[in-house]
TrEMBL record:
SUPFAM superfamilies: NAD(P)-linked oxidoreductase (SSF51430). CDD domains: AKR_PA4992-like (cd19095). It comes from the Bacteria. The keyword Electron transport does not apply. Keywords: Signal. Pfam families: Aldo_ket_red. This is Diketogulonate reductase-like aldo/keto reductase. InterPro entries: AKR2_Oxidoreductase, NAD(P)_OxRdtase_dom_sf, NADP_OxRdtase_dom.
């Protein structure tokens, strides 16, 4: 698997597209037609009861590209997400060109209005925040942003006042806060227990389960939707299982790849609303989406899955 920092050559890109097309057309997503469950699992956003598919896509580093050759596999990845029932695309002004690439690709896709768009404000000061968020909406070509999040809680009190006003005016639909470290989980809980927050985004994986102690239960109790970043522990999970076969009991539970194994572990937690694995590879995107289909693990199976990973 390519790391987030690697880019594809033109030859590799064309190879990926050909392989992705074959996968999606024959042995990939169309395989759902013979399955008992042909739609992705959806969970409600507690503040509105709107249903959101449990797997989306993140854009950190993977969508920060310039040329059309590099953008083409990203378009195919977005189409794979859509075809499998995914909706949420998460971005940020911190992610270089990612917002603009998302806007450009979705605008020409024919399915522009079928995604749930999420981005962030990542600056200090009221006016700077307003300008940055306006720029984000222009880049992503959205008259209304589905979800605007305060990135890593930077100047969150200032931006929260703006977001409340924008939500009341209909400029955004939902308000969120984010972070990516265990050490900030208590701060996230403290904020959404005191203020009107719709979404909280944070790190969580089968290797990093700190969120289970307080953050996930509190979000469930307070009615806050959750978005999971770093679901693959920044790629460390794939290093752990390199060369290892999936156990038979995993396949018996609709888990057919290690990516699905790691994502289904997260989706199996009832307080998880959506996971956002990032990728620029259409085949990986299609495989990630499969985690939202079929049976999801109960608590006993989740512990069995975690024990397996700890044994490696």
């Amino acid at each position: 698997m390519k790391t987030l920092h690697q880019r594809y050559s033109r030859r590799e890109t064309l190879g990926l597209l050909a392989a992705s097309t074959a996968t999606l057309a024959s042995g990939g997503l169309t395989a759902f037609s013979s399955s008992n469950q042909t739609t992705m699992l959806n969970r409600p956003i507690p503040s509105s009861k709107e249903k959101l598919p449990v797997v989306g896509i993140g854009t950190w580093q993977t969508f920060d590209v310039a040329g059309k050759t590099e953008q083409e596999p990203l378009l195919q990845a977005l189409k794979a997400v859509h075809q499998a029932g995914g909706r949420l695309i998460d971005s940020s002004p911190m992610y270089g060109r990612s917002e603009e690439v998302v806007g450009t690709l979705t605008a020409g896709s024919g399915i522009q209005n079928e995604f749930f768009y999420a981005t962030k404000v990542w600056t200090r000061g009221r006016e700077a925040g307003i300008q940055q968020m306006d720029d984000s909406m222009r880049k992503m070509k959205r008259p209304t942003m589905d979800l605007m999040q305060i990135h890593n809680l930077l100047d969150w009190k200032t931006h929260l006042e703006t977001l409340k006003a924008w939500k009341a005016a209909g400029k955004i639909r939902y308000i969120g806060i984010t972070h990516y470290t265990d050490s900030m989980h208590d701060d996230l809980v403290d904020i959404f227990t005191k203020y009107p927050i719709d979404f909280v985004q944070f790190n969580y994986s089968i290797l990093s389960r700190n969120a289970e102690k307080k953050l996930l239960p509190a979000a469930q109790d307070k009615g806050v939707a959750t978005i999971i970043n770093q679901p693959f522990a920044e790629g460390r999970l794939f290093s752990l299982v390199k060369g290892k076969e999936l156990p038979a009991w995993a396949k018996e539970n609709d888990i057919n790849s290690w990516a699905q194994f790691f994502l289904k572990f997260l989706i199996g937690h009832p307080a998880v609303t959506c996971v956002i694995p990032g990728t620029s590879n259409p085949r990986h995107a299609a495989d990630n989406m499969l985690a939202g289909h079929g049976r999801q693990p109960d608590s006993a199976l989740r512990e069995k899955m975690a024990a397996l990973i700890r044994s490696f």
